Amino acid sequence: MTSFPLTVFIISYERPLYLWATLDSLYRATKSDVRFVLIDSGSKDPLVHKVIDGFSRRGLFFDIVKFEHNNIEWADPFFSHWHDKLGEVFFTVESDVVIKEAKTCWAQRMLAVMESNPSMAMLGSIIDKSDFIDPAVLERQITRKLTEEEKQQIKFFSPERTMPHIDPDSVASPFNPPGRLIALRTKAVRDHLGNAMKWNDDEMHNILIRNGWDTGIYGGVVHRHLSLCNYFDYNDYSIEQRDKYMQLYAEGTHCRYSII
Question: For domain 6-250, which architecture applies?
Answer without folding.
Answer: Alpha-Beta Complex (3.90)
